[in-house]
Write a structure and sequence with these properties.
Layout lengths: L15 E4 L15 E2 L2 H17 L1 H9 L15 H20 L3 E4 L8 E4 L7 E5 L3 E2 L3 H6 L8 E2 L2 H8 L8 H8 L7 H8 L3 H20 L2 H18 L1 H6 L1 H10 L3 H8 L6 H5 L5 H9 L3 H21 L2 H32 L1
Parallel strand pairs: 1-4, 3-5, 6-7
Antiparallel strand pairs: 2-3, 4-5
Helix pairs in contact: 1-3, 1-5, 2-3, 3-5, 5-8, 9-15, 12-14
């Protein structure tokens, strides 16, 4: 399937608020006329939260585990890795509870800067409301594609949902509410929200948005990106055959890498993607690559199509012989090692 998206280079932070007595600055956001979401919309949101809990939450937990802990914290900015992972799970479970009970509402107000809010009215009456002026409840495939419309509305994602789910337990400080209400400079967000206020709900937003952005682009479009690479190599081979020969081993190794989860992750994850986790959490590149390789994403979303692409690329680049030779070398080497071990064991028996 061909995807064409614009992908933000930084987490796409949207404004999310809690309604209640403590949120005086945005109290007008709580008075909106709310419409019950349709059964179809509730099913879309249910699919989105279930998919995120299954595919994104374990990866986010692993990245927190691999972090340096400075900016990893739980509710009320307290604790470290353990608290973050516990409270991430509590937030997602709470959001799932509200969604399963059908308490999803919509409203439309272009003047209201919030995209969604959570109303804490006791466990049987909590609700999540989505401002359709900013967000659209979409089917799961469109949601995880991460494609915003031309008018600027974006899918209501797992990141949005767990942010709202956290508001059963925590509220934004008045400093955060005031900053966002006055549309403070984007460049100051990370400092105020993470360093100064240690706002857990926004920490979820930053980290989950980064994972979703990586998934929609680097995972779902992985084969398409490699096809673009192949076109470039074929073009260069045509105009500079000698240069191609010099890089022949590099191309052969790259295609071998793309055939396994570990190799694909090594080729895909670099210092410039999943940047939040390197920059703010101090997760080493090797750990990012390991976690993505072990995520199961390659096997579920990429493997079959990628292996077809690798075979096709080897044919078009004339590298089938190289790969056959590598496989033969590997088999001969394995057989030699086994025979060698057998000889050694035999000599042990003979002379032992």
């Amino acid at each position: 399937m061909h995807h064409q998206h614009k992908h933000p280079t930084t987490p796409n932070l949207r404004h999310r608020f809690i309604c209640g007595a403590t949120a005086a600055l945005i109290a007008q956001g709580c008075g909106h006329d709310l419409a019950q979401a349709t059964d179809e919309q509730i099913e879309y949101v249910r699919s989105t939260v279930n998919h995120g809990n299954e595919h994104f939450l374990p990866v986010l937990s692993e990245l927190a585990e691999a972090s340096s802990e400075d900016l990893v914290f739980g509710f009320n900015g307290e604790g470290g890795k353990e608290e973050f992972i516990r409270d991430l799970t509590l937030s997602s479970e709470n959001a799932s509870r509200v969604i399963e009970s059908g308490r999803v509402y919509t409203f439309t107000d272009p003047e209201y800067i919030g995209s969604a809010f959570y109303r804490n009215m006791g466990s049987n009456h909590d609700l999540i409301a989505v401002n359709e002026a900013n967000l659209v409840i979409m089917p799961l495939d469109d949601t995880i594609d991460g494609h915003c419309t031309e008018s600027g509305t974006c899918p209501f994602t797992w990141s949005d949902i767990i942010h709202e789910g956290s508001h059963e337990f925590v509220v934004h400080s008045s400093a955060v509410d005031e900053y966002v209400e006055n549309r403070g400079p984007k460049s100051g967000y990370d400092n105020l929200l993470l360093n100064q206020e240690r706002d857990f709900s926004y920490l979820l937003s930053y980290s989950a948005d980064e994972i979703q952005s990586f998934f929609s682009f680097n995972v779902l479009e992985s084969v398409e990106l490699e096809r673009v690479w192949l076109e470039g190599v074929l073009f260069n081979k045509e105009i500079d055959p000698h240069g191609f020969e010099l890089n022949r081993q590099f191309y052969s190794d790259k295609l071998s890498d793309l055939s396994t989860p570990e190799g694909w992750a090594k080729q895909t994850v670099d210092d410039y993607n999943l940047e939040f986790f390197s920059e703010f959490w101090g997760v080493p590149l090797e750990e990012k690559q390991r976690i993505i390789a072990e995520s199961g994403w390659y096997e579920e979303y990429i493997e079959d199509e990628m292996k077809e692409f690798v075979s096709e690329a080897r044919r078009e680049l004339g590298l089938e012989y190289d790969e056959t030779r590598v496989e033969l070398d590997r088999e001969i080497s394995t057989e030699w090692n086994l025979n060698d071990e057998g000889r050694r064991e035999g000599s042990d028996i003979k002379f032992g």
